[in-house]
Amino acid sequence: MNETVRNRPAGSARPLSEAYDTALLDLDGVVYAGGEAIVHAVGSLGAARAGGMHLAYVTNNALRTPEAVAAHLTDLGVPAEPADVITSAQAVARLIAEQVPAGARVLVIGGEGLRVALRERGLEPVESADDDPAAVVQGYGGPELPWGRLAEASYAVARGVPWFASNTDLTIPSARGIAPGNGAAVEVVRIATGATPQVAGKPLPPMHRETILRTGARRPLVVGDRLDTDIEGAYAGGVDSLLVLTGVTTAAQLIAAEPRHRPTYVAADLRALLTGQPEVAPTGEAPTGEAAPAGQTAPVGEAASPVDGRRGGFRCGGWVAAVDGDTLVLDGEGDDPMDGLRALCAAAWTAAGDGACGADAGKALARLGL
What we know:
The protein has helices spanning 16-19, 41-50, 66-76, 88-97, 112-120, 147-158, 182-193, 205-215, 227-237, 251-255, 337-352, 362-368; strands at 22-25, 32-33, 36-37, 54-59, 85-87, 105-109, 124-126, 135-138, 163-165, 171-174, 177-180, 198-199, 220-224, 240-244, 265-267, 281-282, 314-316, 319-324, 327-332. It has 12 helices and 19 strands. α4 packs across α5, α4 (88-97) crosses α8 and α6 (147-158) crosses α7. The protein folds into 3 domains: 16-60 and 204-274, Rossmann fold (3-Layer(aba) Sandwich), CATH 3.40.50; 89-197, HAD superfamily/HAD-like (Rossmann fold, 3-Layer(aba) Sandwich); 281-368, no CATH class.
């Protein structure tokens, strides 16, 4: 477990695609949404790959097989092989195989991705609680999952059959908005039985283990859109992370994040892989990390901001942010709204310490258009 409390987004003098050997990319909300590529994703991933970065796609969605995911990515213009795709179905199948006899039957509540992963581990998928399963596994089954499948899981779990879940994401991005995820279906079975499943997917260790085993990454960068899966998983695994704001996480949620949900880097989209990241410096300290001249509260050549004197002031680009009572305040005229967001995160996270910041950021974010 990573014990460091991050109090501001990090900077990087080198493009992230050069600073890290492998990008561990979430799919839904990062590469695509509702099956369609997210803006800038295809070109950015192609350029990162051409520059030598290994791209691996790590998803909590257990519905599709790695072959199907790789084919979809290739169709979108992001060439991928099945070996480049790691799913929570693979992670949960390994977890089950470690606890049941070889060749055991497993009741599957989900899609083909789960069935293929179980067979890969020598297990036999079955469809009924009356098939004498040694385990029940539940994964995202798509928007048309019949209610009767949840009842089937409940019957087996209520009889004491060990219960596993690929993941417990409550929501999933779609082309039409945010839809219920596998976690919502898991809650139905939990309510019916009072039981609790073993979970494999992000942010838990089985998924991180599966990813490292399959990719061999030595200096990975986790790239995701969710604080409670992608970023928390990176935190738990002790690796760096990049949050992109193309999925479910809002700027306000990021500012209020507790330590395990604070990413190393913050960006609007996947173009961030191809660039360095600006430093976020306390007011009174130059952005390079060098101390400002005595008595000077702004970096050399910049006018001091009225915010500079307030508690916990931070600057990034042309923006300065600080906490003023129970409000986050923002000053300056930066070119990039993301720089303003980075400064706001630093001020909020520093003020919150090892908790979650409750300061109101509404006006500051409105100024940034976020």
